[in-house]
Amino acid sequence: MLSIKDLKVNIEDKAILRGLNLDIKPGEIHAIMGPNGSGKSTLANVLAGREEYEVTDGSVTFEGEDLLDMDVDERAQKGVFLAFQYPVEIPGVSTATFLKSAVNAVREARGEEELKSIDMLKLLREKTAMVGMDQKFLQRSLNEGFSGGEKKRNEMLQMALLEPKLAVLDETDSGLDIDALKIVADVVNQMRDANRSFLIVTHYQRLLNYIVPDHVHVLVNGRIVKSGDKSLALKLEDQGYDWVKGEAALAE
Ligand code: ADP
Ligand code: MG
Ligand code: MG
């Protein structure tokens, strides 16, 4: 489904990702862990199509097509969901209006008809309940004055509505309390199925107590230096990153 080959990425001429390889098959959940500054968010941002990142080598294909060649909307229309670390605020645009247009844009790209108002309303109701969000949020301006937990719920609502084939989530340690982590885990677990894949970027093992990944990868200094199953996450929680860094330094 997603294939990353020898990906090299610079920011302001500094090499951040230095040859990253990753293959994600349908139905798999992959977790990327690693010490601060190792390039985890850079990877998520490159997949999201953010512009300040310069890809100098390698490739990323999604279902055989060049992902890096697609603009941000195209990525969403093809079924890639990219949650942002800091979702934008759009004053004056209600959350409902934003979500409706996002859903219809993706439907249109898939060759499906726009949802009738009544069906859209039904869908919004169903998914807001799924993420445990109060219906009142839908009337508020997008993200304006939302608390961290509310932003997270809103992001998970977007994911639930868009039903992507692949979701990339960047869960930083900053500002995410245990309740927010549980929201993420709860929605991911509800959406998990044989055809949908997730790439979950996370600093702490904590989230992986709630979402059991199929594969865990450790990113150090712009490369995946170790991969394993969920027990690798437990070992990192227990022993930290120093032992992996040591192994990685020896391999250089
Ligand atoms: P992680 O998410 O693993 O903590 P990041 O991908 O955020 O790591 O950062 C990797 C490196 O790239 C760090 O050294 C960071 O300072 C640098 N970096 C990230 N984003 C930018 C940016 N927009 N401009 C300059 N340097 C950046
Ligand atoms: Mg960081
Ligand atoms: Mg980060």
From TrEMBL:
Name of the protein: Fe-S cluster assembly ATPase SufC
One GO MF term attached to the UniProt entry: ATP binding
Coiled coil: none
UniProt organism field: Flavilitoribacter nigricans (strain ATCC 23147 / DSM 23189 / NBRC 102662 / NCIMB 1420 / SS-2)
Classification via Gene3D superfamilies: P-loop containing nucleotide triphosphate hydrolases
Residues covered by the ABC transporter domain: 2-246
Family in the record: Belongs to the ABC transporter superfamily. Ycf16 family.
The entry's keywords: ATP-binding, Nucleotide-binding
